[in-house]
């Protein structure tokens, strides 16, 4: 681009900023516009779908140089002038994360209806419990989902026109859609649901409804027992065996399995060790872990993630939990895990991941951007004390501030030394093998 | 309700009648309080509209023996909404808790209890979100009155004392305020007329930072958990919801958790889930009872195992929780809001149980376009509310006598029923000039006859009233079938049904025809 072209472009951007209020396009290289068209193909939210699609349609017809930025800018300018909407949370876009589902406040969701015939009351309550964080953590959410499904099954009344193995699955679909509105399903929940749906399909249509219902409830119970409860037991035993006297164990945020390992090692295993809990805003989940470990009598230190590099020199092991394990050996876990693991790696501290096999995923992910979950931006804006006004109050209408609350991140395989599962302690490269084995079952 | 419906029944609605003394005196001589008109609709229509608007499909109304015939008649003939109503007449007992006990067999899920004179605007979803997400035993709506409203005309009316924990006006403005709702820790209803509040040391130790105020008004809209109906069933001494049940529940928050915690510690259980599972295994033994007759199992939710995993186990032992959705009356709060954003109008929460409130409600609901929920009420052509007296004289409702604006000047915020007739004589004392009658800020029922030079301001006039010439009616309520002789001046009066009002001055009188 020549200097004049650049000047013209820059002045156009400044004008554009004033009229439309959106973040201006940064003309880096020609590659970016193409990337955008790919991203915009991935189901963008409907309000911006039109603008994105329009841009995507315009791009292939132009050459790949900076000049094609201008028709886009013009388009935006026209849009800005036409609509003249104040930038609210739903219209602003952070370019990099625009493909992720935006966070919608529970009040604004559809289907918070009362006595909706398609939703069982326990599902309605479950959705809200997910939204408020009353039930959080991979195991808890999956367990809650399965308990709710058990209740739905027990209360299911089979009409004469229906056959359970076909219709019950259909009945569950709107309920799951309802739950998805509040928080996207985790990998473990998806696997559990798939398993249950298979069982529903295999129900014998010749048996009576009651017998089928009992069988299904039993199947759900078996899944819970085998792949969650007993699996956790195995992992705990394995994990306890790996803790030696004098260990300094670091853990990040709160994993239910890690909590069990640490309490068991201290109370029953009689081992002498201490724990460093690393925590971060906005969820502060480490506090709950701290609470429980202190009640159990474990020697704990509590730091925020900014102190990780300082405390890492005393640490002998890092043990973390995971939301899911990906087929390329990466760990998909609470945001902040990746820096902790990378720091451990640079200090040559071994990193152990404890994860049940029902959370293993067939997908792969190289970065934390392609698939993630956006949380409530208001969580980021508030400080503890209630009487203080949120620091970033009014950020929705300010076009220059975009609050991003990511929930998960991906830790690459090279930073993970061992994965402890109920089938044994495996290197991260073997995750794909396990996934394959379970698929064949 | 068929079986399939009961599966997805999350919330049932019950409307009760609250007999808080007869503050509406002469107005209720002939007609039950629930049928007194507000903006020309019977009072009971309003809670029904609210429930219908919020998505409920059936409702149970509990009626007192003396009113049940008339109200049943209205529900069968006059009610045009879409709710399916199950009207139950209370055989024994009079008050709200007795009503709940009477319909105990119908209650299969969490239920919402409304007073039949409550006019409210708050979306039910907000209340429900708190109730669902926090496992609360009871959720209520607390109206935080600002100072200007508090210093009202009813200075001699006793107010409730309510203590809230975790209340902060700034937090309420946040859209996710239901994640952190206020909890009610002290509740002393107005009927108990306490002059001072005494709390024990354990109360302060447990709750710490409490905001206790008279400006928190309870609005008699409650969402209860299913087990509360069992509790009311087991306690025959509970007569009134507001005076007995709610204070009992609020107070029990103090000791239930400690008792349960001690019980778990004594028996070496770490979490509530373990305890409940062990109870299940030893099926022969008696279940641990939180209150006599209410087992811990019935209070704890099905999701207990998942909840135990996620939150601190000791907060889960807090089985009884009473939360409040606090509605702030003042709307002109933070100055940092953009002026382009419309300031929300203050929520409408009022009970039509005093004369002032009744008048206020008539005024508020006649303002067109103000309250979306009650918009349908402005379409007066739909219904013809039947009069409480036997004959609804149809020969009076002839439209060809509709008065012109020369004869009767009707103000913009008046509601006038059908069949208004102008009976002023052509020749008046001022020679050939007719003096028109004016109506300002008043609600007129059907078939009202107005003479010349009649000034009606700030009043409620019900059906079939004859008003003679030269009358002035201010700040008054005139019931059905009243005959007001010419030159009468009513100021701050209430006239019962069927009275004949002489043509003289009346000030602040309640005219009854039952001498």
UniProtKB/TrEMBL annotation, chain A:
The keyword Acetylation does not apply. InterPro entries: IF-2B-related, IF_2B-like_C, NagB/RpiA_transferase-like. Residues 1-18 have a biased composition (Basic and acidic residues). It holds the Pfam family IF-2B. It is found in: Cytoplasm, Cytosol. Residues 1-96 are annotated as: Disordered. It comes from the Eukaryota. Its main location: cytoplasm. Residues 67-82 have a biased composition (Low complexity). One of its GO terms (cellular component) is cytosol. Keywords: Cytoplasm, Initiation factor, Protein biosynthesis. GO terms for molecular function: translation initiation factor activity. Residues 19-61 have a biased composition (Polar residues). Component of the translation initiation factor 2B (eIF2B) complex which is a heterodecamer of two sets of five different subunits: alpha, beta, gamma, delta and epsilon. Subunits alpha, beta and delta comprise a regulatory subcomplex and subunits epsilon and gamma comprise a catalytic subcomplex. Within the complex, the hexameric regulatory complex resides at the center, with the two heterodimeric catalytic subcomplexes bound on opposite sides. Belongs to the eIF-2B alpha/beta/delta subunits family. This is Translation initiation factor eIF2B subunit delta. It comes from Acrasis kona.
Automatic annotation (TrEMBL), chain B:
Pfam families: Hexapep_GlmU, NTP_transferase. Keywords: Cytoplasm, Initiation factor, Protein biosynthesis. It comes from the Eukaryota. Residues 379-392 have a biased composition (Polar residues). This is Translation initiation factor eIF2B subunit gamma. Component of the translation initiation factor 2B (eIF2B) complex which is a heterodecamer of two sets of five different subunits: alpha, beta, gamma, delta and epsilon. Subunits alpha, beta and delta comprise a regulatory subcomplex and subunits epsilon and gamma comprise a catalytic subcomplex. Within the complex, the hexameric regulatory complex resides at the center, with the two heterodimeric catalytic subcomplexes bound on opposite sides. InterPro entries: eIF2B_gamma (IPR051960), GlmU/GlgC-like_hexapep (IPR056818), NTP_transferase_dom (IPR005835), Nucleotide-diphossugar_trans (IPR029044), Trimer_LpxA-like_sf (IPR011004). GO terms for biological process: cytoplasmic translational initiation. It is found in: Cytoplasm, Cytosol. PANTHER family: TRANSLATION INITIATION FACTOR EIF-2B SUBUNIT GAMMA. One of its GO terms (cellular component) is cytosol. Acts as a component of the translation initiation factor 2B (eIF2B) complex, which catalyzes the exchange of GDP for GTP on the eukaryotic initiation factor 2 (eIF2) complex gamma subunit. Its guanine nucleotide exchange factor activity is repressed when bound to eIF2 complex phosphorylated on the alpha subunit, thereby limiting the amount of methionyl-initiator methionine tRNA available to the ribosome and consequently global translation is repressed. Residues 435-488 form the Glucose-1-phosphate adenylyltransferase/Bifunctional protein GlmU-like C-terminal hexapeptide domain. GO terms for molecular function: guanyl-nucleotide exchange factor activity; translation initiation factor activity. Residues 13-148 form the Nucleotidyl transferase domain. Residues 378-406 are annotated as: Disordered. Its main location: cytoplasm. Gene3D superfamilies: Hexapeptide repeat proteins, Spore Coat Polysaccharide Biosynthesis Protein SpsA, Chain A. Belongs to the eIF-2B gamma/epsilon subunits family.
